[in-house]
Amino acid sequence: MPKSKRAKVVHLTQTDKKGKELSQKLFANVQEAAENFEHIFVFSVENMRNSYLKEVRAEFSDSRFFFGKTKVMAKALGITPAEEHLTNLSELTKHLAGNVGLFFTNREPADVLEYFAAYSQTDFARAGVTATQTFTIPAGVVYSRGGEIPADDDVALPHSVETTLRKWGMPTRLDQGKVTLDAPYTVCKEGQVLNSHQTALLKNFGVAMADFKIDIKAYYSKKTEAVIEVDAMEE
């Protein structure tokens, strides 16, 4: 196992006292994890949901995740060869850009990659997400699933939600106490970036379009002192 390079003083970005303390704690924890684990992964998250991330953390309870300030994590690992905490670790730091985190583990990289390649959870989309399908509600009485299942297997929406649906942009009206559309209404089209009214309607009709997924960008192994780019492996 390669030994850590001599500790160096690294100046963190000026912040307020509390922020500085948190940055220093993150810095120290990342370096400690680098000492204690054999493999370090850089990952990104699509459609972040804390509940699913908690589920993944539980699956890897013997490992550590960090999802904080990337500049602080990069400084902890070392941005240049002269600063790197372990030999060649600065090559991994190049991948710490954007909305990414660090994952430290002693599990074999092949097992980690296999797990995350298969792990995905579907949830309701939030504003800013791209629609994965076109969703159109048929004309007539509006049902709870918006035509996604046969009317005989569904129930009509309660009249109490009609005002809310109109607030979200649906041209509904009440006809003998039933929520009704005079013409089919397209909530969204595939490839369209969703706004808050569209996501509210999709959730109301039980249409989930967001996949929570963790993508591994690259990883470092102490034994080889090498950084493997996962995208390059898949090409």
TrEMBL record:
Keywords: Cytoplasm, Nucleus, Ribosome biogenesis. The keyword Cytoplasm applies. Pfam families: Ribosomal_L10, RL10P_insert. GO terms for biological process: nuclear-transcribed mRNA catabolic process; ribosomal large subunit assembly; ribosomal large subunit export from nucleus; rRNA processing. SUPFAM superfamilies: Ribosomal protein L10-like. Signal peptide: none annotated. It is found in: Cytoplasm; Nucleus, Nucleolus. It comes from the Eukaryota. GO terms for molecular function: RNA binding. Residues 125-207 form the Large ribosomal subunit protein uL10-like insertion domain. GO terms for cellular component: cytoplasm; nucleoplasm; preribosome, large subunit precursor; small-subunit processome. Its main location: cytoplasm. InterPro entries: Mrt4, Ribosomal_uL10, Ribosomal_uL10-like_insert, Ribosomal_uL10-like_insert_sf, Ribosomal_uL10-like_sf, Ribosome_Assembly_uL10. Associates with the pre-60S ribosomal particle. Belongs to the universal ribosomal protein uL10 family. Component of the ribosome assembly machinery. Nuclear paralog of the ribosomal protein P0, it binds pre-60S subunits at an early stage of assembly in the nucleolus, and is replaced by P0 in cytoplasmic pre-60S subunits and mature 80S ribosomes. This is Ribosome assembly factor mrt4.
